[in-house]
Amino acid sequence: MSSPVCSHLDTITFRELPDPIKGCEECLKTGDWWVHLRMCMECGTIRCCDDSPNKHATKHAHEASHPIIKSAEPGEDWSWCYVDEVAFVIE
């Protein structure tokens, strides 16, 4: 049995996380809080996860049609494709 595969790997422009990460770019503008951070692998923006009240990473993915995010949390190396609904690690 084969594992699910992301068909949008060709959209990846950003692989490395920025240093430092100040927080969710949208929450910082409005003074809101977030739980975990994600980086858009197409444009590099940092947004908050779906456990955060504003779910900015998902909103960005749908509004900008940028399919892949990467966890920006220390020690995590997974990515998620919103279109194919698959998690994966880029080696």
Structure commentary:
Helices cover 16% and strands 21% of the residues. It has 91 residues and is an alpha+beta fold. The protein has a 5-stranded antiparallel β-sheet with strand order 2-1-3-4-5. A hairpin with a 6-residue loop joins strand 3 and strand 4. The chain starts with 24 loop residues before the first helix and ends with a strand.
Précis, in short:
The chain has 91 residues and is of the alpha+beta class. The chain has helices at residues 25-30, 56-64; strands at residues 37-40, 46-48, 68-71, 78-81, 86-89.
Topology:
Layout: H1 25-30, E1 37-40, E2 46-48, H2 56-64, E3 68-71, E4 78-81, E5 86-89
Antiparallel strand pairs: 1-2, 1-3, 3-4, 4-5
> Topology as H/E string?
HEEHEEE
CATH superfamily: Zinc/RING finger domain, C3HC4 (zinc finger)
CATH class: Alpha Beta
Strand ordering within the main sheet: 2-1-3-4-5
Shape: globular
The domain count comes to: 1
List unreliable stretches of 5+ residues: none
What is the architecture at the second tier of CATH?
2-Layer Sandwich
